[in-house]
Amino acid sequence: MSLELQGIGVSRGIAMGRAHILFRDQPDTPEYCIPPEHIDKEVKRLKTATKIARKQLKAIRKKIPGDAPADVSAFIDTHLLMLKDSTLTKIPANMIRKRGCNAEWALQLQRDSLVSVFEEIDDPYLRTRKDDIDHVINRIHRILSDEETSIEEILPGNPKGAIIVADDLSPADTVLMQNKGIAGFVIEHGGITSHTTILARSLGIPAIVSLPSARRYIQDNEPLIIDGTSGTLIAGATLEISNAYKERLLMHRSHLYSLSRYKTEPTQTLDGKAITLLANAELPEDITAITEAGAAGIGLYRTEFLYMNRSDPPEEEEQLTVYRNIVESMHGAPVTIRTFDLGADKTVDGGRSSIMAINPALGLRAIRLSLNQPTMFIAQLRAILRASAYGNIKILFPMVSSLQELAQTQILLDHCKSELDEEGLDYDRDIDIGIMIEVPAAAICAEIFAEKVDFLSIGTNDLIQYTLAVDRIDDHVNYLYDPLHPAVLRLIQTTLSAGKKHHIPVSMCGEMASDPRYTRLLLAMGLEHFSMHPNALLEVKQIINETDLAKLPDNTLGLLNQADSYQAEQLLLEINQTT
Question: Is the distance from CB of 304 to CB of 337 less than 8 angstroms?
């Protein structure tokens, strides 16, 4: 008798193999007092464990093949940087000295302090960075307790083709598993924007997350099937189900192979409509993947990581170097740089203090925080402007909800331009500026905003979340997160219509743009500029190039009036089956 479990699919593809249950839960964190004469010894014990953790990660990094995606090395490097940060080195050591507590407990206290800050961040991507804190601190904890065992030690001698079922996995674990040829993985926790899941997508490993108690229901060595698209896990499948998935697996592999031919083809529908496909980026290392995917430019460059895991915000010259390198590496292709989209808890001191917002989702964040901290904001605007002298840069402002915010932002931008003129520094005086459409107020007033800016960019992740009042990473309510909800689709349509009326481009940079299920619908609605993770680009491009807009069902836009979610899914299926 087969068992079917449902989690969240985060890395597309089908994997079939035997389960390997990974039992390596959170390490115990004892609390005890250290005698004064042993304090220095305890601090040294912590420092030694931290050094060992760095040594382990460096060893893992050396095992990464030279042709691996840039994300692989970048995420390991992120953990290495965290192990050098004073928040995980000096502060716990100071706690040992002041409190007279053991190293494990000092680390745990600091972990709880850091995680509480990240949990206040509204942006789902940034909020899941708390997973990285847990991964790094758990590694040190295991070393302190002599429980640290690598994935290589836990996995069977020849795990090739196995499906790992675990509580959680770190990016380092994922790298080592990929080297050993595992077929896929299922974890009980995790989110769609964690570094581990992003890495799984980069490496092409089918994966399911947020499947609670999976290890209770699955037996070790039991045959499994996982669908990383739908999030479905099947244990003990019947012969009929197994054969059906084997056929789907072969079709998927053939499909992936066929996508490579689209790298050099122009992006246009069968009836000749040209479409622009851009890529999202957040690290300089992403440029390689973006170039290889054939993107026409960068539609969203996130700058938040310049500000995180450090004691002070980045200075103008440091930012200039990063932005200049990005734009020069794109060789004239457009690069849209979004100003920092940080939460209410993130201040100019790099996070050493925090503003405790009652409701951070609706608090001081994104453009509101930028205007509240003009010194930090001006440093970024000056750096972006100066970098525009070296290539095609556009500036994107996040979470704008009123014309007053836009006017204040424009005043600061003009101030920066005047300063650069006085200093004789070069920049693009006609640089394009745009705003993110990610709150309902901005979408409803899109036509008003379209008169004031050069482009609009729809951030569907937040737009859906704010429109439906749903936290998409909250397991209790994320079933309500629905891109096909007529309220969401109408706000998107309103924004697209505003762009068309005022002759300015409108792009979409949220996950909806990278999901092939919605490509034809968005084309029918009039979207011409998509921006997405580079790994999704070729699949979306194939759908665009195989779509004849004139042949889409006459009732395609009827989805904007379809309140029944089942009927909406059926209509979407009909749209996608059109040939």
Answer: no
445 a catalytic residue: no
Continuous segment of H or E residues that includes residue 280: strand 276-281
Q: What is the pTM of this model?
A: 0.71
pLDDT in tens, 371-390: 999 999 999 999 999 999 99
Select which of 141, 195, 485, 529 is catalytic: 195
Report in angstroms the alpha-carbon separations of 556 from 459, 551, 560, 562, 578: 22, 10, 9, 11, 11
* CB of 491 closer than 8 Å to CB of 463: yes
Convert the pLDDT of each residue in 128-185 to its tens digit. 677 788 888 888 988 888 765 555 555 656 678 899 998 888 877 887 777 778 899 9
Task: Say whether 509 is catalytic.
Answer: yes
Helices 39-62 and 70-84 cross at an angle (nearest 10°) of 170
Please say whether the beta carbons of 162 and 186 come within 8 A.
Answer: no
101, 416, 445, 509: the active-site residue: 509
Identify which of 560, 562, 428, 449 has the alpha carbon closest to the alpha carbon of residue 504: 449
* Domains of the chain from N-terminus onward: 3-24+150-238 (3.50.30.10), 36-144 (1.10.274.10), 269-548 (3.20.20.60)
